[in-house]
Structures are given as C-alpha cells and as structure tokens.
UniProtKB/TrEMBL annotation:
It comes from Cellulomonas carbonis T26. This is Diaminopimelate decarboxylase. The active site is at C400. One of its GO terms (molecular function) is diaminopimelate decarboxylase activity. Pyridoxal 5'-phosphate binds at G263, E305, P306, G307, R308, Y430. GO terms for biological process: lysine biosynthetic process via diaminopimelate. Homodimer. Pathway: Amino-acid biosynthesis; L-lysine biosynthesis via DAP pathway; L-lysine from DL-2,6-diaminopimelate: step 1/1. Substrate binds at R308, R369, Y373, E401, Y430. CDD domains: PLPDE_III_DapDC (cd06828). Residues 50-311 form the Orn/DAP/Arg decarboxylase 2 N-terminal domain. Residues 346-428 form the Orn/DAP/Arg decarboxylase 2 C-terminal domain.
C-alpha cells in the first residue's frame, strides 16, 4: 500500500536522497534510476552513500551523547552481517564506527577495507580454529565468546600466538524480542550465548578470569533483530548489570564493558515507524544509569552493534518488470497459517478478487526475507508516472518456487507493464548479504549513489563466475 498521498515518497522507507521528478521518475542522490538501470542493468541494489553515513553518525552520536550524560563512554560497532563490502566498511569506519564481524569472511572484508584490527570484533557460535587464529593475528579488539568450550579454545589459541586475547562473554538474558522467531536471540532455547538464569554465564565469566591468556573486557547481550519496542533492551541491560555485579561480589572484578547488541528495528512498509536513535539511546542510558546506581557500581563503557538500522533503509532493489498476470483469487482461506494471514490482510473477505501478479527479474535469490520470515515490503514504479488508478498486486520473482514473493501485497498503477522499473525500498540489510545463486541466477551488483554519480561497489556476478566454480 502506498500510504502516502499523491506522488510523495514515505521518508520512513525511502533513502534520504530519494525524490520524485516532474515526470514521476525517481532519483536517488541525484541519480535517475532509469539511467542507472540502463548503465548497470537490473536487478541492482542502489545504495545511498550519504544516507548510510548519516545513519551511522546518528546512531553513534545518539548513544555517545546519551551515555555521556551518565559518564559512560560508547563504542558503536556496525554489524557487518547486515551488509558488508570494502566500501561500506570504510564508510562506517570513517564515520567513527567499529566493525562487528561474525565469520572469517566478514573479518577479511573489514581488514581489506583497512580497518585496524583493534576496531574489529569477532562473533560466532561456532568459530573455527582458523577464524580464532586469524582474529588474534589481526589483533582484533575483542572476541565474543559464545560457549564454555570456547573459553579454553580461545585461551589456547592465544597461548599459541603468544598474545593475551581480549574477550567478552555473550549471555542470554531470557528477554524475547524481535520481528520473528528466527531472529529473536536471547530466549533460552536457541544456539547463541550462555544462560544467565541457568548459571552458565557466570560459570563462563569465572572460567575466563581463571585463564591468564584472556583479558575479560565485559559482558555481551544481543536480544534479537527488527525490534520496534525498546523496552526489551532496558530489561536485558538490567539483567546484565546484575550479573556484572554478582561477578564483582564474588571475584572482586567489576568488568569494564557491556555490549547491548544490535537489533534496532526499521520501518519496512509505509505506516511503520522505526526506532528513533535518540529516544532509544536515552532510554538505554536511563536504564543503565539507574541500575548501576541501585547496585552501587560504576557505569561500564557501553557498546552497541546496529546493522539493519544503519544500512537497511539506505538501499532499494531496482527490478525490471516482465510478465504481468491478473489472477482471480478465491478469497476463502485454505487453512494454512499464511493463507489465514493473507485472508486477514485481504480484509477477511471471502469474495473472489483479482490479484495482479507482477514478475520481476530477481526474487528470493536477492531478497530471501519474505520467504524466510514472511517479511513485508512495498514497491513503486520508478521509471514513469503510472496511471492514477491502482490494482492490487503481488510482486514475484523468477524462481521455481511459488513462495518466491518479493512484495506480498501492494497497490501498483493499473497500467503497470513489462519494461517498467520497479523499486523495492529497505533492502539494504540482509538483502545482498543473504543472496543466493538459486536457479543459477548471478547475484546483483551494489551500486552506490552520491552527489549525482553512481559507482559499483560490488559488481554483478556473471555466468562465468558461476561456471568457474563448476569443474565439470
Ligand atoms: C550479535 C549480533 N550483533 C548485532 C546484530 C545486528 O542486528 P541488527 O541488524 O538487527 O541490528 C546481530 C543480528 O541480529 C547479532 O546477532
Ligand atoms: N537475517 C535476519 C536477521 C538476523 C540477524 C542476525 N543475528 C533478517 O533478515 O532479519
């Protein structure tokens, strides 16, 4: 649904540099998407560099200012899993952020970007020896331990390397938050972290203190992703601070840092409202300040790891429309959960209606989120002004799956047709980073736009790239 009167672009979901021209076509950072498509082809991810930098700065300064008020320093790590490339790692670092990596591959990108090891963190619930060794060789600022066995594994790797490894312990606070079960990470029954309630978190912290090869920086908690209600962060912060206090009472060591993780939600469709960095930071600082005062502890240095909130809304995926097919839909739900939800969204009407299936030249290979999480997006024709009347549409990809849906339900101009350019906003996070080659579709490029110019920062894959892996 457009949700915005007339031609306007909803600023919650479009990159800051997006605007509609006289002819109805959309430009981002002064670059006409028609010329970008002509030069670079579709599908393509189009990333507004200034918007990325602005968002990175907004999260950093919001947290720095809010925590300065309670006397705490702040480090903001950009969570590279959302989208990492050499250019983006450089921009984030230039804007004063560090880089959070989750694998050796992400670490390699950050290092290639010239980010100093001390400004990089390494996560992972199943780090390989090679990843641990590489992180230590790079002198990373911290390795976040995710299990009891990792305490010994990282200590032994540090001994081999002849270094003292700076570590944090990732804990689960029992706070359940996030946009989908698959992306909620602090409840107990999942693979990440060590349970506070079950005692394993405290056990791991003691184990770290017993290993001279490890320097215990602090405690880490990440409660989930696409969180739109900030209260979970406050509850988690209080639980971590209680754990920190308990460790101090027992061992005399009051750890100096606490990481509150990422997960700050964005608006995906018009009408949704993203978490505001300033309000979120102030609420977190209040919770940390109050809890430390109650416990009688000094405030720790705070870190956060936003990914989606920095990169998600900076990017649109640009597609070319192919087949347009009206399908008469029997409004009655079939009984499965998704159909029941569709029926609700469809106004629970049992009346048959026509849905226009608009096929584009990408799909679940460039955006897995609708298929994986039932994620919602919007779409707009960006190459011209469409008819004033609209048709109820579903944007689908070109893959051999009926679940290959890009936008579940959207009003598009009734004259939408083959050759139109269609843009889907808010695809910067977990779009390219979770893209696949399903059906041997080469992954799209990432084209950065800035000051009227477009620059490819990740090139399009080619069939030759794919065939180069096939040894016959
Ligand atoms: C440990 C950790 N930090 C940071 C993030 C970034 O999350 P988001 O992109 O939702 O901010 C994630 C992913 O959810 C994560 O697992
Ligand atoms: N990939 C997920 C988020 C996972 C976050 C990583 N812990 C998404 O697209 O929403």
């Amino acid at each position: 649904m457009s949700g915005v009167p007339g031609d306007a672009l909803d600023p919650q979901v479009w990159p800051a540099g997006a605007e509609v021209g006289e002819d109805g076509a959309v430009r981002i950072a002064g670059v006409d998407l028609r010329s970008l498509a002509a030069e670079h082809g579709t599908p393509a991810y189009v990333l507004d560099e200034a918007d990325f930098r602005r968002r990175a700065r907004a999260w950093r300064t919001a947290f720095e200012e809010a925590f300065a008020a309670i006397g705490a320093g702040v480090d903001v790590y950009y969570a590279g899993k959302a989208f990492l490339s050499v250019a983006v790692a450089r921009w984030a670092h230039e804007e004063g952020l560090r880089i959070d990596t989750a694998t050796g591959g992400e670490l390699a990108v950050a290092l290639r970007a010239g980010v100093p090891g001390e400004d990089i963190g390494l996560h992972g619930n199943n780090k390989s020896d090679a990843e641990i060794d590489r992180a230590l060789a790079a002198g990373v600022g911290r390795i976040v331990l995710d299990s009891l066995v990792e305490v010994d594994r990282v200590a032994e790797a540090a001994a081999r390397a002849g270094v003292r490894a700076p570590v944090m312990v990732r804990v689960t606070t029992g706070v359940h938050a996030g946009g989908h079960e698959y992306i909620s990470t602090a409840h107990e029954d999942q693979k990440f972290g060590l349970s506070v309630a079950g005692g394993q978190a405290l056990e791991a912290l003691r184990a770290v203190l017993a290993r001279p090869e490890l320097e215990l920086l602090g405690i880490h908690s990440h409660i989930g992703s696409q969180i739109l209600d900030p209260s979970g962060f406050e509850v988690a912060a209080r639980r971590i601070l209680e754990l920190r206090s308990a460790l101090a009472r027992e061992t005399g060591v009051l750890v100096s840092e606490v990481d509150l993780g990422g997960g700050y939600g964005v608006a995906y469709v018009p009408g949704e409202v993203a978490l505001d960095p300033v309000e979120t930071a102030r609420a977190a600082a209040r919770a940390v300040g109050d809890e430390c005062a109650r416990l009688g502890d000094a405030v720790p240095r705070i870190s956060i790891e936003p990914g989606r909130a920095v990169v998600g809304p900076t990017t649109v995926t640009l597609y070319t429309v192919g087949t347009v097919k009206p399908v008469t839909v029997d409004g009655a739900p079939t009984g499965d959960a998704r159909d029941a939800r569709d029926a609700r969204d469809d106004g629970a009407s049992a009346e048959p209606f026509v849905r226009t299936y608009v096929s584009v030249d990408g799909g679940m290979s460039d955006n897995l989120r609708p298929a994986l999480y039932g994620a919602r997006y919007s779409a707009r024709v960006v190459s011209r002004r469409g008819a004033a009347t609209t048709v109820r549409s579903r944007v689908v990809g070109k893959h051999c799956e009926s679940g290959d849906v890009v936008v579940h339900d959207v009003e598009l101009p009734s004259d939408v047709r083959a050759g139109d350019l269609l843009a889907v906003p808010v695809t910067g996070a977990y779009g390219r980073s979770m893209a696949s080659n399903y059906n041997h579709v080469p992954r799209p490029p990432v084209v950065a736009v800035r000051d009227g110019a477009a620059r490819v920062v990740v090139r399009r894959e080619t069939e030759d790239d794919l065939l180069a892996l096939d040894l016959g």
